[in-house]
Amino acid sequence: MMNRQADCDSSTMRQKLKGDLHRVADRMNQTLSTFDHDSVCLLGQFAEIRAEIKQIEVLASSFYLDCYLSPFTEKFAELTASVQHLSDRRYGALIVIEREVPLEPIIHSGVAVDARVTHALLESLFIPGAPLHDGAVLIRGNQIVSAGNVLPLSQAIAHERKIG
């Protein structure tokens, strides 16, 4: 795979995030200064601030996801869009990106897909009720290799943790 890690200079993104956070802080201070006025709808302002913070979160998570995936697939933008769309709909998804070690000997194979990664195809595989939505999707390079895969269980023991 190509090595695009050098393209992941975060200085521009950090500056943008810093500016966005300052704007949200200013907005919060403005809301605080109007707090005692009865004519101000605080719930509306809170909703707007929450939406701004959500956009900042999407920007940061997309950037880091792209940087992490870019050495392993050229379809990192498609994957990022899919993850965001699935998250917005509150759909779960197990997506496994194969790196240097072949994963087929480790996982219990599902259904062969052998198709180029597109956000539409990837999202359709995880729609609740779809035949393959309960398993993991295996991606190698720019291809969806298979879907409905069963991943191995961890051998680690969870002490004093609630799981599930």
From TrEMBL:
PROSITE patterns cross-referenced by the UniProt entry: DAC (PS51794)
InterPro entries: CdaS_N, DisA, DNA_integrity_DisA_N_sf, DNA_integrity_scan_DisA_N
Domain of life assignment: Bacteria
GO molecular function: adenylate cyclase activity; ATP binding; diadenylate cyclase activity
Reactions catalysed: 2 ATP = 3',3'-c-di-AMP + 2 diphosphate
Keyword Transferase: yes
All copies of domain DAC, residue ranges: 46-164
Name of this chain's protein: DAC domain-containing protein
